[in-house]
Write a sequence for this structure.
């Protein structure tokens, strides 16, 4: 057991379950911001031996800056412009979503128990939690209609991959981490712009009505 | 090798220049055309050097793609195929500059980009010595020619033609991929030299599969029946200088690949020869019959390409039969005839497509029943078209005769042998070639007569204008090549021999001895033709002399004493072909509707006939319809909802994960 890391993991699981159960879009964005903060701290907690290097600090700062501040800010702006407060007709109801969340948690635990053990992993919770986050991210993308929720789903998915990388493969080159961050940034930015334009063109941001665009 | 690399580099730079965003795009187009000319000229030099220099060169650069290597090589066989590619590439670029003069420069720039890419890829295809490099060049060739075919993509029929071509060429590539995997697995390397070692030790079943894949894969590009359906669609859709390049040389890369890969599959058994004979006979006869039934000049020429590919295949069949029987004469003559026909067909088919382009350019239509009387309005186009038409029919003083003569002679050398199989093969080839030649003559009498003779049948033909200078000279150059190769036949045959030597594994002396029986009569025929030409020139001089100082009157053509003849009283091109078509109507499925004139004072009557491609209407269309019906079952999964697509991906990934962990 490693208390600091495991408490971060706990925060991640709780925010995920919150995301599944919340209908207010603004709260969803808050939850994802908290998740971003928590997971931004991970590199610091993992690299204890020999103290944090300058690079680690840089990664921590950029991650928290993007996932904890910039992305949520962008999403809130999009929400304000779109003037939508809650997800109206999710494909899967909120209670059902919570149930699915617990199923996903169990599935993730089972899957990671089948994985070969990672040598020198500081936390046994990291693998199941990262699988759980990937599943939840996919589930949000699948079950929600609002474009902002789609972006939230994408971010959660991305966060899951990040946890996997930082905790389990602690030798991940910094350049790759930076690249992934940049990638996510570009994606969120583009989606934010797209949401804005979809909204101004069609007066709604339901992705399941986008198929009306096909010729 | 320097020249090859230089020409590839020039093509690449010119391609980029052609699409550069510039203030005055017309200069970019000029740069593209100029680069195509310079690159093709460098390639032409390399080809001549490779064919007559006799050295075998290669260049290898490591490449990061697994199994791939940038391995280019030059031997007489590559050089021989490089000759028409670069030669026609050069003339096509000059012609295209005149043909598209005054068009939208931005769109033209894209066209010249693809033209340069097509030339570069064809040069790479015939010089590549690594299967991966070959396949990539092959695909680039297919794609760039697809974009050239769909140059006028605002027309729906052009887009349809492009799709048919794209599907056909990729089906062919799929077979090539399978072939290369079979050989690569066996050889443990994707070098052609390693294939050659591995091919001989394939198990019998795999050897048959490898031959079938080679024949289908390369046959699709070459246009063997029944894989020819894309030719009559794609060639008319493309701009004329591109049709000339595609029909003249691009389909020949299929023949090149066939020869190159069959050389890797070990000693040829007799049934290869029989297969090629059957394919050649089918393509030749059906191709020329379908050509005869066409109304559109470019469709006619496209079907005629199928016929000529059939003739080449007959030559290859004779050659492989000769190899399997150990008869150097039969093998050498068959291959020499086939290879020389590759070059000749590039020359006259290029010429005819350029001529058809001039007709289209000058009148705006390619429908032979709307043309007529163009000879007086377009004398340059008419004369060069006539020379091309006479060559393609294989008439004596011209080049088509030389290559067909070699194939005939190779077949005869089989007939006079003692083996009954050889006698049968010889007879099949001789009767087949004779039938093909006869119908081809009728086809081109119809085409030339319909377009250039008589009186104009429409306003478009009445107001036709002659091709401009840039378009004229390439046609004159190609017509001159037809005549030159015809009169210098013995020299031309000797020039092909180094390439034949790459296929027939005997010394050059033995090869010389092998073709010797054909060389003597060929020499006599050439001499006779020269004498005949001299006589004609003498008579023409005499006529000029006698007519000098007298008045020469001119009158309408074929007015038969009528006071007011109209152009509608002439035979149309279709009615000219009708008697012959009636003989083969059962084979072709020609359909017609209309009312025949009745009684002593017939009232209004009409007749229309059409010949849809029997392979397309009876085989491919039902096949594709059925496939479409089958695939409609999956339509439900294709609803355009983004989330469901994500679900498919997620479910697949999770299933894989559970499968690999559980």
């Amino acid at each position: 057991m490693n208390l600091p890391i495991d408490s971060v993991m706990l925060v991640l699981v709780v925010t995920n379950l919150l995301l599944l159960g919340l209908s207010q879009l603004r709260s969803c964005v808050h939850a994802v911001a908290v998740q971003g903060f928590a997971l931004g701290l991970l590199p610091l907690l993992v690299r204890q031996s020999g103290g944090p290097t300058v690079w680690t600090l840089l990664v921590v700062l950029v991650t928290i800056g993007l996932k904890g501040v910039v992305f949520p800010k962008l999403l809130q702006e999009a929400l304000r412009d779109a003037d939508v407060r809650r997800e109206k007709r999710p494909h899967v109801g909120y209670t059902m979503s919570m149930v699915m969340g617990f199923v996903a948690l169990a599935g993730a635990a089972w899957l990671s128990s089948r994985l070969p053990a990672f040598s020198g992993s500081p936390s046994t919770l990291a693998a199941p939690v990262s699988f759980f986050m990937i599943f939840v991210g996919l589930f949000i993308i699948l079950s929600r209609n609002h474009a902002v929720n789609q972006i939230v789903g994408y971010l959660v998915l991305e966060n899951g991959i990040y946890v996997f990388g930082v905790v389990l493969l602690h030798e991940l080159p910094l350049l790759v981490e930076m690249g992934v961050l940049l990638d996510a940034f570009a994606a969120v930015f583009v989606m934010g712009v797209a949401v804005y334009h979809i909204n101004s063109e069609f007066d709604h941001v339901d992705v399941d009505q986008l198929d009306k665009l096909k010729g | 090798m320097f020249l090859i690399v230089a020409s590839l580099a020039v093509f690449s730079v010119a391609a980029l220049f052609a699409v550069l965003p510039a203030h005055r795009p017309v200069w970019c187009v000029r740069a593209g055309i100029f680069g195509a000319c310079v690159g093709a000229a460098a390639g032409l030099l390399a080809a001549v050097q490779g064919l007559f220099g006799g050295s075998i060169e290669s260049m290898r650069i490591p490449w990061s793609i697994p199994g791939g290597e940038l391995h280019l090589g030059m031997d007489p066989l590559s050089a021989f195929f490089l000759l028409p590619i670069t030669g026609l590439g050069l003339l096509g670029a000059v012609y295209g500059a005149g043909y598209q003069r005054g068009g939208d420069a931005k769109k033209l720039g894209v066209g010249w980009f693809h033209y340069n890419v097509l030339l570069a890829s064809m040069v790479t295809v015939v010089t590549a010595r690594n299967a991966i490099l070959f396949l990539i060049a092959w695909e680039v060739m297919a794609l760039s020619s697809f974009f050239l075919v769909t140059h006028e993509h605002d027309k729906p029929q052009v887009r349809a033609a492009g799709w048919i071509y794209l599907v056909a060429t990729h089906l062919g590539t799929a077979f090539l991929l399978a072939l290369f995997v079979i050989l690569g697995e066996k050889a443990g390397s994707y070098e052609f030299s390693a294939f050659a070692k591995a091919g001989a030790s394939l198990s019998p079943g795999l050897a048959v599969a490898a031959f079938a894949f080679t024949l289908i894969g390369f046959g699709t590009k070459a246009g063997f029946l029944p894989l020819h359906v894309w030719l009559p669609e794609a060639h008319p859709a493309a701009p004329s200088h591109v049709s000339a390049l595609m029909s003249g040389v691009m389909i020949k890369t299929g023949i090149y690949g066939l020869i190159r890969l069959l050389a890797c599959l070990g000693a040829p058994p007799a049934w290869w020869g029989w297969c090629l004979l059957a394919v050649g006979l089918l393509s030749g006869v059906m191709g020329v019959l379908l050509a005869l039934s066409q109304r559109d000049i470019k469709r006619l020429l496209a079907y005629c390409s199928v016929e000529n590919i059939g003739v080449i295949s007959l030559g290859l069949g004779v050659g492989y039969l000769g190899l399997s029987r150990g008869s150097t004469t039969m093998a050498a003559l068959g291959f020499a005839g086939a290879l020389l026909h590759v070059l000749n067909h590039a020359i006259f088919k290029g010429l005819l497509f350029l001529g058809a382009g001039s007709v289209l350019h000058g009148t705006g239509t390619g429908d032979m029943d709307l043309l007529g009387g163009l000879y007086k309005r377009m004398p340059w186009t008419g004369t060069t078209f006539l020379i091309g038409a006479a060559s393609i029919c294989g008439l004596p003083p011209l080049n088509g005769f030389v290559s067909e003569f070699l194939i005939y002679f190779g077949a005869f050398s089989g007939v006079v042998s003692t083996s009954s199989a050889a006698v049968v093969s010889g007879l099949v080839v001789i009767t087949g070639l004779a039938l093909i030649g006869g119908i081809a003559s009728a086809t081109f009498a119809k085409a030339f007569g319909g377009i250039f003779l008589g009186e104009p049948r429409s306003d478009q033909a009445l107001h036709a204008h002659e091709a401009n200078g840039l378009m004229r000279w390439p046609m004159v150059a190609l017509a001159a090549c037809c005549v030159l190769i015809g009169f210098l036949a013995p020299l031309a045959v000797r020039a092909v021999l180094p390439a034949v030597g790459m296929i027939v594994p005997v010394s050059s002396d033995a090869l010389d001895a092998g073709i010797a029986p054909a060389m003597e009569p060929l020499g006599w025929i050439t001499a006779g033709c020269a004498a005949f030409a001299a006589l004609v020139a003498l008579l023409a001089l005499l006529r000029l002399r006698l007519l000098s100082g007298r008045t020469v009157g001119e009158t309408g053509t074929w007015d038969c004493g009528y006071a007011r003849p109209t152009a509608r009283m002439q035979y149309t091109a279709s009615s000219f072909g009708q008697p012959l078509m009636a003989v083969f109507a059962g084979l072709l499925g020609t359909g017609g509707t209309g009312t025949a004139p009745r009684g002593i004072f017939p009232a209004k009557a009409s007749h229309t006939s059409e010949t849809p491609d029997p392979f397309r209407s009876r085989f491919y269309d039902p096949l594709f319809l059925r496939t479409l019906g089958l695939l409609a079952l999956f339509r439900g999964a294709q609803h355009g909802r983004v989330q469901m697509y994500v679900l498919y991906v997620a479910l697949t990934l999770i299933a894989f994960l559970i499968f690999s962990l559980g």
